[in-house]
From TrEMBL:
This is Reticulon-like protein. It is a multi-pass membrane protein. It comes from Ananas comosus var. bracteatus. The chain crosses the membrane at residues 63-81, 134-152. InterPro entries: Reticulon, Reticulon-like. The keyword Cell membrane does not apply. Its main location: endoplasmic reticulum. It comes from the Eukaryota. Residues 23-190 form the Reticulon domain. GO terms for cellular component: endoplasmic reticulum membrane. Keywords: Endoplasmic reticulum, Membrane, Transmembrane, Transmembrane helix.
Amino acid sequence: MGSSIRPSERPKSLHELLGGGVVADVMLWRRRNVPIKILLGSLAAWWVFEVSGYTVLSLLSNVLLLLISILFVWAKAAWILNRYHLMLVQTPPPMPVMRISEEVINEVALHMHSIVNMVLSIFHNIALGKDTELFYGVAVYLWLISIIGSLTDFPTLCYISLVTVLTVPALYEKYEDCIDKYLDLAYTELLMYERVYERVCFQWYNKAKRLIMEITKES
C-alpha cells in the first residue's frame, strides 16, 4: 500500500497547489470581477450554442463578418468625411494594437506545464501501483465523468466543468477546516476497507495456492 498525505496534512496552501499565479487568483476569486465575467460569458455562450442552435464555426463567422464590416464602413466613412471637410466625426475606429503580451504567454505555458506534469506523474504512480488511494480517486473521477458525459452533450459538459473549476476551489478554501475534517474521516474509512480487502485477497491467495499444490501432488 502506497503512502499518501492526509487531507489535513497538506504541506502547501491551496493557492500554492494551484500554481500561485493569476490562474490561482481567478479560481479562488482573489480577483472577483474576472471569474464573474468568465461565468457570465460562459453562460451566454452555452445559451447561444444550446438554445439558439448555433455552431462554433457559424457563430465565429457571423461575429467576425459583422465586426469587420462595421470597422471597414467606419474607416471608409471617416476617410470620406475627412476628405470633404464635413463637420462630423472624422476619426477612424479606435483600434488598439492587437497582440498578446509575453507575460501572458509565459503564465499560460507555465500553468499548462504544471498540469501536464501532474497528470503524467499521477499516471506513472498508478501504472506502477505506488499509490492505491490515488488509483481509487482517479477511478472514481473517471467513472463520474463517464456518467456525466453519457447524460449531457459537450457544450453543457464544458460549461459545468468551468463552473466547477471556478466554484469548488473557492468554496473549499472558505470551508477548508470543515471539509478536511470529513475528508480525514473518509480517509480513515478507506484505509479500513483497504486492510479488509487486502486480508480477504491474501486469504483467497493462500487457498488458491494450497489447492494448486494439492492438484499438482495428485497428478
